[in-house]
Known about the structure:
By secondary structure, the chain is an alpha/beta fold. Helix content is 49%, strand content 11%. It holds the Pfam family DHDPS.
Amino acid sequence: MTTVPLAARLTRVQGPLFFPVTAYGPDGSIDLGACRAHVESGVDAGAAAVFVCCGTGEFHALTPDEYGRCVATAVAAADGEVPVIAGVGYGTALAARYARTAEAAGADGLLALPPYLVLADQAGLLRHYTALAASTCLELIVYQRDNALFAPPTVAELARTDGIIGLKDGHGDLDLMQRIVTAVRRDAPGQDFLYFNGLPTAELTGPAYRGVGITLYSSAAFAFVPDIALAFHRALATGDDKTAARLLDGFFAPLAALRDLGRGYAVSLVKAGVRLEGLDVGGVRPPLSEPDPAHVDALAELIGQGRALLAELA
């Protein structure tokens, strides 16, 4: 860990945010060697940060012991080059327990996933996240999606809470996000509060989120085609709209369409992509299922098309 604030570290390196998969061996147990190789390759490729044991990393399927070992492995693999943020979730007490485990494993921060199952009001959500922030010395990012949707005044209150440094949006309502950004700017002035585009295949909505001032985003594609993901990130960051549009039309839009063909493909299709690129990370744990073989073949073809497009653009 480092004394540099997490917000500064997350914006210091220009690159996509890397959400590695969790690797399993043939017997279904955690394969820490493959986990480490996967994280190391992402860091070497230019990831700005590693978000371990989150949605793509099947946080829901890991035991507490497996979780701690996965986080420690990611920390060792990153070796201080970029920050490692660990997913935490479930109810407040369990989320705090996972936070302590992540802290002991050397994580630099936390991504707070939505509370398990319940539909809470704004006051309840605020109590949950402020209690979680108070339970750990690690700074945390709140993940907005599903049953954790926030009114702008609630986010402003979160921004004023010690230890909460940002909001990752997986909901996709840009009108709401603009109102949130405005509320935080007005009601929590001086806070170095970060915003992240956390939609699946976030590249597809990257230009729209930039219009709201949100430039940080998670890249599922980076887990298996970091070269294509980085080319798009550079194009978007430098205002190369023509290249960004070519990559959107020729790779990311077809990838999103393929992802939408099956439930759980935001995880299982990414793992299939990692396997196609030569690293055996195993399958997914229940309740997720493996993608249709025809869809894996289509992914392999799409990867080839994406690389051909990169060659054209070079």
